[in-house]
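User: For my dataset I need records formatted as: sequence, then structure tokens, nothing else. Please produce one.
Assistant:
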Amino acid sequence: MKTRDKIVHAALELFNEHGERTITTNHIAAHIDISPGNLYYHFRNKQEIIREIFKEYSTELLERFAPFEGNTEGLALLKHYLSSIFSLMWKYRFFYSNLPEILQRDSQLHSDYIQVQEKLQLNLVNIIQLFIDLRFLSIQKSDIEAFVTTLHMIVCGWLSYQSAMSPRIKVTEHVIHQGMLHMICMVKPRATELGQKQLELLEEGVTAMYELNQPAMPNSMSA
């Protein structure tokens, strides 16, 4: 792996584990055993590293939420998009946890973020229309954009909301799973009878996924 890529991956790991605000370029350099000067050869400051992480995030985001073309099975699509939400929130959790502050510090990043979100909004509208065509959802055309915006707000604000409600909270897979279940709950009132059944299956799958990832409890009867 090239040094530039190592810096980006190390920064993402440290930001996720300790919070972006507490990590400096010296921490990042030490984490991959290079000198600060070597890091500055690739990035002038921490903000440039954050921008590079955002580029990777944006590419992955738009790829994962591209409208699907061709015949497909509806439940598989639901699983794909919900899994994508979880994967992105977990992989880039520092960004979701502290989004407003990160954007306020960097006007260029804020501008780039808005452009990406506008593209994403169009994709999400098309995805919701697909689920309407599959008779999973029943939503008036005039309400689709507002519905998409509501779901988008839940995803973007979920980790910030959790932090606000409990300052000492640690972002875990469980916290993100709870956000996914909340999203399913928001979609249910708009689902058809067929859609309700598929969402219930999806809900069971999300719960099972969380339980599967939990460490085994110690046997209380053991010596």
